[in-house]
Amino acid sequence: MELISLSNWDSSVADDVSYDVFVTNQSIDDRARFFASSFEGRFIQKIIIKNKISGSSFSKQLEDLGFVDVELSGFEQVLRCVDLGGKCVNVLLDISCMPRDVMSHLLSSILSFFSGCIVRIRIKYTIASYSLPPNDIGANAGIEAVHSDFSGWSHADSKPTSLVLGLGYEPFKAEGASEFFEPYDQWVFVPESPVTDYLPKVIENNQQLINRSEAENRTIYYKVDDPEMTFGQLEQVVSLLSQTTNPVLMPFGPKILFFLCLIQSLCHPEVGVWYVTGNHPEEIVNNFASEHSCGFECVFAVGKVD
To answer: Among 198, 200, 286, 302, which lies 20 to 30 A Cα-Cα from 254?
Structure first.
């Protein structure tokens, strides 16, 4: 698998792409409907990944637009229906409300299924309007690799572990992950959202982490709405850390960073993407879409492409 290109994508600019599959995630979050009901692209299959939390009202609204409910375990059956005559597959994922384990499963399935193809994946992320962090955030239930394909440490050696933390605005989450790993080296990625209310709360709830990382020049501020630049920032840090350590990426905060970390793991198999297991309150609350969104396109050559 080779990453051919990664660039920002503006979904408001019309183009001639016909998508083989468009995937969104069932959620009570308003953003799960926002893009799916407004984007005017052309699709062969439109899929909602079902979950056990949401009620039926979400699905009914999108079923009227031609979406079909699919269990995550049945996603590969959807891929079997893709016509490979052109040896190029186009997939659109709306990750605005998509859990991290679902994102990793979908990406792994897509890239493992279409061997010998050029695969273009477009990612859409709608930024939520600001709301206070959920009150019912408990301790981290567990920390583990998000998927076996993104577990890292592909070469057995004695390198120490390093950690790249993406900060969210929930208190204690990132600090708990840092204490779990006790990393040899640690970098912190701080999100700068166009919804400016988020940044002060991110800093307030991660002040000790940020103070330590800034004292060691290990702080990166990234723009949530510029995935291409953020990927370049990640690439610089990961390439540096990989020389002497086994990096682990723990991206809390905006899901756009998480997906970029998955791609980093594909490019650097020794790099793992880990996450916190258990309840994620941010995935079961109704956030409303802001006026801001972003997207990017990544193109892969999977296996030997004729």
So the answer is: 302
pLDDT tens profile 270-298: 999 999 886 555 555 678 899 999 999 99
- Please give the model's pTM, rounded to 2 decimal places: 0.94
Query: Both 52 and 149 in a single domain?
Result: no
Segment 154-180 shows an average pLDDT of: 86
pLDDT given at position 275 = 92
| Count of domains forming the chain | 2
The average pLDDT across 150-163 equals 80
For residue 110, report the phi and psi dihedrals to the nearest 5 degrees: -60, -45
State the Cα–Cα distance between residues 178 and 139, nearest whole angstrom.
Answer: 13
Q: Which helix (H) or strand (E) holds 61?
A: helix 57-63
Tokens of 283: 């995935």
CA distance 16 to 14: 7
Task: Let me know whether 81 and 146 are in one domain.
Answer: no
Distance CA 90, CA 78 (A): 14
Beta strands of 129-218 (E only): which ranges? 142-145, 161-166, 185-192
By three-state DSSP, how is residue 306 classified?
coil
CA-to-CA dists, residue 263 to 8, 55, 251, 259, angstroms: 14, 32, 13, 7
Residue at 135 is within a domain: no
Q: Which is nearest to 22 in space by CA: 51, 47, 58?
A: 47
**Is 108 in a helix, a strand, or coil?**
helix
Q: Angle at the Cα of 34 (from 29 to 38), degrees rounded to 5?
A: 165
Domain that holds residue 55: 2-130+288-302
CB 111: neighbour CB atoms within 10 A?
Answer: 18
Residue 140 confidence (pLDDT) above 70: no
